[in-house]
Amino acid sequence: MVNRVEKLSLLSEMIAFAKSDKNIKNIEYNFLLGVAKQLEISREDFDYLIEHPINYIHLKSHSERIVQFHRLVLLMNIDNEHSPSSVIKLYNFGLRMGLSHESITKVLYLMESFPNKIVPPDVLIDIFKTQYN
Q1: What 3 state SS string does the chain have?
Q2: What CA–CA distance (Å, rounded) separates 25 from 31?
Q3: What is the pTM of this model?
Q4: pLDDT in tens, 51-100
Q5: Segment holding 63, helix H or strand E
């Protein structure tokens, strides 16, 4: 179970990722707001995080880290534009979360073969399960 501080950290990390190309686009903002609602974070807290990021907190649960990585993949591809630097940044976020570089590389490679570059959750989970076992 993820606590409130961990949820704020997850959201703050996603906001930082969205800001990597300077501005948060409307489509990204709406996606992030949806994640905030899913995490039961208020609109006020969400808007506060945009201006005041909090420190990263490492999630203990491997499955929660996979879910967070999937959110970041979705966020990166939501506007159908991603630069090589955003792919590198996503890769580094995955490594920092303690995910295996083989799994991250496989997800980034397979992403190209899916419509809108959206890797289905079951495929993503299978990739990480294979590497985790």
Answers
A1: CCCHHHHHHHHHHHHHHHHHHCCCCHHHHHHHHHHHHHCCCCHHHHHHHHHCCCCCCCCCCHHHHHHHHHHHHHHHHCCCCCCHHHHHHHHHHHHHCCCCHHHHHHHHHHHCCCHHHCCCHHHHHHHHHHHHC
A2: 10
A3: 0.87
A4: 999 988 888 888 889 989 999 999 988 877 777 888 898 999 999 999 99
A5: helix 62-77
